[in-house]
Amino acid sequence: HHTFAIAVLCISMWEALHFTCDFTLSEIDKYILFFKISKIISSCSVKDDVIIQTMKRCWKENHYLLCPHTAVAVSYHYKNPPSHQRRCFLATASAAKFQEVLKQAGLPLEIPEKISALETKQTQKISMQKSANWESILREKIKLIQMRRH
Q: Which Pfam families match (predicted)?
């Protein structure tokens, strides 16, 4: 019953966002959504030294460099091993973006070729006024970029 209600609520929220870029929730819908989400999503905070330790451990065990933000999620996983659940962590950024943290952790600085290639590219910008239709400007810019690629 509640699962169906959540599915319907999520679909209606997505449709409202998609078609009107806006939505509001009733107090009961807020409660239902919060109740369901809080059963499956948790949060934590992690001190800087634990982030460094997590990055080191992940590198040692998997030869994978974590960014500090992703290390927060992985540290939760290390402290709370799953009993029967599968977990998925989405890396929020390349570790190469955090060179100082990698140095602090004594981890290798591996800058992927695609990232180092960005250093030689010309910076481009568009000035946009506060009152401008930013969505329209960005959509037009994306179309121009796509046309250049084809």
A: THR4_C (PF24857)
Kindly list the domain boundaries of the chain, sorted by start residue: 2-40, 48-108
Q: Residues 56, 62, 65, 71: what is their CA dihedral angle, to the nearest 10 degrees? A: -60
First to last CA, the chain: 49
* Rounded distance between C-alpha atoms, residue 141 and residue 145, angstroms: 6
Per-residue pLDDT of the chain (150 residues; tens, 9 = 90+): 556 666 777 777 777 777 777 777 788 877 877 888 887 777 889 999 999 999 999 999 999 999 999 999 999 999 988 888 778 888 878 899 999 999 999 999 888 888 888 888 888 888 888 898 988 988 888 898 888 887
Amino acid letter, residue 81: P
Residue type (1 letter), 106: G
The shares of helix, strand and coil residues in the chain, as percent rounded to the nearest 5, are: 60, 0, 40
| 100 token code pair | 């100082």
